[in-house]
Amino acid sequence: MNFIMKKNINKFFIILIIVLISIFSGYENPKLVEIPKKYFYFALKKIGLRDNFLNQQIDGLDHKEETTKSNEFRANSFSVILTKLKSFSGLSSSLIMSKNGEESEYEIFTQEGFKIEKNRISEMNLPISFYKEQAGGVKSVFTIEDENYALISAKKLSCFYASLINLRNSKEILKSKCLPDNKGIQFSGLGGAYIKTENEIILSIGVPAHKAEKISALAQKKNSIFGKMLLIENKVLLDQSQNEINYKIYSSGHRNPQGLVLIGKRLFSLEHGPHGGDELNEIIEGENYGWPIASLGTEYGTHKSYESHASDNFKKPLFVFIPAVAPSALNVCPKNLSQYYKSYDCLMGLSLKAMSILVFLIEKDTDHVVSVEKIFLNKRLRHFGLEKKGNLFLDEDENFYITADGDGLYKIKFTGFIN
Fold it and tell me: pLDDT tens-digit profile of 282-329?
């Protein structure tokens, strides 16, 4: 037995003892250690054996390239061609696209903590605090100068929180305070939509709750990152010397913003309401959007109404969906559709519950929403494919790309416009 192997075995037994102590302590305090295998994986990673073990797990994941034919769906005045490219299980947290010659390449980041590429699946470099229960996981991944960052749900002992991490070194560079109601946590509300400018990023942090009053109230508290749009400078993110980055609260009073896009100088978001009341908002720096005080939706269970946005001078939404559509992404329309509707600002969203592409036409320089068209695709649509710079990715044939929950990766093209 060579020296290196003996050294690794010794390391393994030392870490194994630590793991066993952690598991043992969990008998007296079950909240201390909920998933012992998490510590086992962490031990394997520390001694360099994690990758070999993980590859055995990845081989069993459901993912494959597709050769299915395209399907055509009819919108009001054009057609939608939908083509499946890849099947994969789970939920996406981001879809980052790039070009390699004439070929479009993709990186699908999943909420479960994996990165899927054409011929490869790998594990994200996540901290041991990473927490996937209570609808948690990786909620967003974005790139700044080839550094990948992820918004995740996390847990240490009995403290549940959200953090922004650098995926290269798994360092937590922004952490929330502990959530005040552990039983009411629903991390699906964590948001994670973002837009990038030349020098900054605006990142949405939603309220991770379904109907927990103490957690929802954080959207109105200035000392909490929850329910906010945060403005972070690129140079701050890239400064590896900082343990905790500085940020500015750009807007507040948000419930669960899932889509965010800049068109011209106007910033728009798509946001989940409670029972009904999903919102399209124009985001103005310094404004408060009312959650959990104001909403046109109703409370879960009681169906009690909320206050009007006018009651406390909250910024009112541009458009409200009743019943809810569960919006999941927002972007500009592709060039051919924007040209077709050139008299208006054209936005498109994705939805989970309505299983549709949403096309918004908004009068330029006003807050008047002219129309909202739902194009039903019968799939829970999650993310648009974005370039690393954060813009909508379009290939040479005017296709854009989307993910669908528990289904796969698709490309979509708008065609057959009626003049």
Answer: 999 999 999 999 999 999 888 899 999 998 899 999 999 999 999 999
Q: At what angle do helices 50-58 and 36-46 cross, to 10 degrees?
A: 120
Identity at 360, one-letter amino acid code: F
The DSSP symbol for 138 reads E
Q: Which of 225, 130, 209 minimizes the C-alpha distance to 176?
A: 225
Helix (H) or strand (E) holding 94: strand 92-100
Q: Which DSSP string corresponds to 154-187?
A: EEETTEEEEEEEETTTTEEEEEPPPPS-GGGB-G
Read off φ and ψ for residue 302, nearest 5 degrees: -90, -25
Give me 229's structure tokens.
């749009």
The pLDDT value given to residue 210: 86
Please, which residues have CB within 8 angstroms of residue 219's CB and are 6 or more apart in sequence?
207, 226, 227, 228, 252, 253, 254, 255, 291, 292
What is the end-to-end Cα distance of the chain in Å, rounded? 77
Tell which residue, 93, 92, 98, has the closest CA to residue 389.
98
Check pLDDT > 70 for residue 13: no
User: Which pLDDT does position 132 carry in this prediction?
Assistant: 95
- pLDDT digit string, tens, across residues 171-213: 999 999 999 999 999 999 999 999 999 999 999 999 999 889 9
Q: Between 3-28 and 36-46, two packed helices, what is the crossing angle to 10 degrees?
A: 160
Radius of gyration, alpha carbons of the chain: 22
pLDDT of residue 65: 77
Output the average pLDDT for the chain: 89
What is the pTM for the complete model shown? 0.88
pLDDT score at 243: 84
* CB-facing half-sphere around the CA of 148: CA atoms within 13 A: 20
User: Cα torsion at 345, 350, 353, 359 (round to 10°)?
Assistant: 30
Separation of alpha carbons 365 and 266, rounded Å: 9
Residue 7 makes CB contacts below 8 A (sequence gap 6+) with none
Q: Is the pLDDT of residue 31 over 70?
A: no
Largest CA distance in the chain: 77
Please give the DSSP secondary-structure letter assigned to residue 218: G
Token digits for 365? 């320089």
DSSP bridge partners of 375: 357
SS3 396: coil
E strand or H helix that includes residue 191: strand 191-196
CA 205 from chain center: how many Å? 10
In the DSSP assignment, the letter for residue 1 is: -
